[in-house]
Recover the amino acids of this structure.
């Protein structure tokens, strides 16, 4: 029983947490690609930026003496989302829109987004330093422990408060996005433009408006993903830059331009990573009693050492590109 | 007054002009057909009207104003609609969603227009939930026309509506266009099946080198031995 509890804590919960973050990031990447046809390399740093905005707001609330039952990082999330969305719009207007107006190739926009990456990272380091910050500002991280002694387990299933909140928020956002894309006029116009931009223009769809909506959605979701990552781990300037690869892998595996694909891809990559670095001995230990002396399980039986976790996303990405370049859902291929 | 009138329209993609003075006038009751050899500027004329390329000279009068270089999101609400030759449906979206996108610029209730389109193309009503990418070539062409009609245009422009269709469908598409015209929508289309299309046309325009070569009713152009010899394959 303890083995199962250990598996739930280490794989199921961690995988879902990571999957939520990847999914929210990958939705932004995939929407931007679908509408603007370029790989937005700076998306990780947009997440970091969102997290720092939430950090500033939470610190300000704490300084005003506000004490609430939920982590302040969560309370300020709606405001942080709005601010990040506005900054995302500003970045587009300042850096990408002028290039698009000149008919720049997607590669040019990609390089520009690398520039934006460096700029955001530089700004964050300039303002907050390169050290690690805590977004909890004095609040303890609450941990819920689900007692499993009734089932013969000696350890509880434990889940932290931010993790629980993260599941709820991710689920709500995904449902909201689904309703937006399938029910609303603008959401459908977004899908139409991702499907066939020239025809969307010919139909009289206001493509500039669709572009703005895309940045608002991508920016605000990036803010949520970044803040969650900061709540789950810690806040630092290269917070999300390190997970740009798995996020792009998730978007590509799911099928570029396909929002649902990005969600599936995000969870797929997250669970693959989590399972790959999981120490299987912890679960298989009871077998040691049955196995002969020579075949005893080693102390650490992980498929991939933890420090090589990123290679998992990379391997999945390469396999996808070889076997099914359009992704799980049929996405855009260029 | 004509529904749309082009006077000495000059335009192109930025380099040397492709249109060197095109003249055209279409009434609400007209089916106008543009024919001519490859590179004559037939599709370019439609794109110039629809703001998809730069007009550097002349005027395009539509509804009492010069619409040259206006963009589609301004032209569609004014009553102009365009069906491109290729990639003219949203393949990943359902038939009904395709139609809704055609009505994007409308803020009023468009359910009666949708019923009207479904009445015109009953097969689309059956397949309304199906992705447009799964339909046959002829049915896709219906979706494309239906999408363009959703904005309740007074002028519908079609770029080679019969391209890639089997002969049976070509007749059907022409008959449908005629029906749309009888419902009070002016038509201006480019056609490769020149002789067949001119037979339907109330106005025909033979373009060559970005200029009008011959203008007349469809029947006149077919009967003209010069036109027949040079442009209709004898």
């Amino acid at each position: 029983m303890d083995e199962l509890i250990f598996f739930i804590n280490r794989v199921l919960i961690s995988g879902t947490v990571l999957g939520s973050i990847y999914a929210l990031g990958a939705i932004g990447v995939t929407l931007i690609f679908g509408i603007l046809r370029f790989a937005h390399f700076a998306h990780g740093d947009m997440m970091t930026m969102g997290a720092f905005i939430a950090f500033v707001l939470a610190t300000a609330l704490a300084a005003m003496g506000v004490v609430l039952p939920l982590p302040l990082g969560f309370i300020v999330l709606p405001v942080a989302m709005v601010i990040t969305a506005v900054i995302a719009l500003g970045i587009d207007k300042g850096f990408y829109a002028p290039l698009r107006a000149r008919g720049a190739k997607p590669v040019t926009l990609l390089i520009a987004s690398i520039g934006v990456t460096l700029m955001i990272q530089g700004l964050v380091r300039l303002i907050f330093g390169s050290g690690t910050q805590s977004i909890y500002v004095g609040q303890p991280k609450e941990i819920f422990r689900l007692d499993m002694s009734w089932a013969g387990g000696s350890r509880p299933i434990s889940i932290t408060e931010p993790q629980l909140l993260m599941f709820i928020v991710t689920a709500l956002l995904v449902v909201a996005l689904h309703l937006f894309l399938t029910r609303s006029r603008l959401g459908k116009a977004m899908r139409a433009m991702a499907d066939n931009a020239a025809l969307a223009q010919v139909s009289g769809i206001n493509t500039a408006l669709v572009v703005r909506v895309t940045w608002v959605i991508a920016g605000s979701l990036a803010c949520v993903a970044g803040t969650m990552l900061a709540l789950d781990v810690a806040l630092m300037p290269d917070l999300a830059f390190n997970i740009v690869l798995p996020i792009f892998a998730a978007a590509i595996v799911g099928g570029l331009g396909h929002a649902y694909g990005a969600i599936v891809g995000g969870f797929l990559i997250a669970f693959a990573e989590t399972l790959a670095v999981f120490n299987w001995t912890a679960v298989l230990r009871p077998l040691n009693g049955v196995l002969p002396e020579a075949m005893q399980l080693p102390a650490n039986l992980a498929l991939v050492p933890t420090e090589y976790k990123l290679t998992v996303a990379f391997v999945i990405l390469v396999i996808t590109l070889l076997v099914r370049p359009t992704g799980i859902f049929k996405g855009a291929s260029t | 007054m004509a529904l749309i009138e082009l006077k000495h329209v000059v335009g192109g993609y930025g380099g040397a002009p492709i249109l060197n003075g095109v003249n055209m006038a279409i009434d609400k009751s007209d089916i106008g057909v543009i024919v001519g050899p490859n590179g004559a500027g037939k599709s370019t004329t439609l794109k110039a009207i629809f703001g998809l390329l730069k007009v550097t000279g002349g005027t395009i009068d539509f509804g009492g104003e010069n619409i040259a270089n206006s963009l589609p999101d301004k032209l569609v609400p004014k009553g102009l609609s365009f069906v491109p030759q290729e990639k003219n449906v949203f393949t990943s979206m359902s038939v009904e969603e395709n139609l809704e996108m055609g009505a994007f610029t409308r803020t009023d209730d468009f359910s009666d227009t949708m019923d009207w389109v479904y009445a015109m193309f009953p097969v689309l009503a059956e397949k309304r939930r199906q992705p447009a990418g799964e339909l046959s070539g002829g049915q896709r062409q219906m979706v494309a026309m239906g999408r363009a009609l959703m904005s309740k245009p007074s002028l519908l422009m079609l770029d080679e509506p019969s391209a890639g269709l089997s002969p049976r469908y070509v007749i059907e598409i022409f008959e449908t266009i005629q029906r749309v015209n009888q419902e009070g929508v002016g038509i201006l289309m480019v056609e490769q099946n020149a002789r067949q299309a001119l037979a339907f046309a109330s106005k025909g325009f033979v373009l060559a080198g970005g200029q009008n070569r011959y203008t007349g009713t469809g029947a006149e152009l077919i009967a003209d031995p010069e036109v027949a010899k040079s442009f209709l394959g004898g």
